[in-house]
Amino acid sequence: MAEFTPPTIAQAAFQGLCPRCGQPHLFAGPLLSTHLATFAERCSACGLDFTRFNVGDGPAAFLTLILGTVITIAAIIVELTLHPPLWLHMLIWLPLTAVGVVYSLRIAKGALMAAEYRNEAREGAVVAPPDDQDA
C-alpha cells in the first residue's frame, strides 16, 4: 500500500482533501455544483469510507448564527454610513448570506470530518481517559 501524507485539519477543510491521503476527493462535487457540501461515499484514491463519520448538519446552526451576526453588523454599518435604499440592502445582503453559509458549511464539515478522523472519533464510543495514578 502506498504511503500517504495526511493533511492538516485546515488543509482538509479549505481544500476538500481526504483526511487520510490528502487527495481532493472529500466532497461529491466541485465548488460550483449541487453537491457542494455533500461528502463522497469514499475516497477514490485510498478507499477511506466517509459514510462511517457522523458529521451531520452540526456546523450549520453555528455558521448561520456567526455569519448572520457578521452580516447584520455589516448591514447596519452600511446603513448608518451610506443610507442605501432597502432594495439595495436586499440585493447585497441576501445573496451574500446564502453564499457565505453554503461555502462555509463545506469548510466546517470538512474540518469536522478531518478532526473525527484524526482523533479516531466514533459515534457512541466514550472512552475513559488513561489512569495516570500508576506513574
Automatic annotation (TrEMBL):
Spans traversing the lipid bilayer: 60-80, 86-105
Q: Which UniProt keywords apply?
A: Membrane, Transmembrane, Transmembrane helix
Record has Transmembrane as a keyword: yes
An example of a Pfam family matching this protein is: DUF983
What name is this protein filed under? DUF983 domain-containing protein
Organism listed in the record? Sphingomonas sanguinis
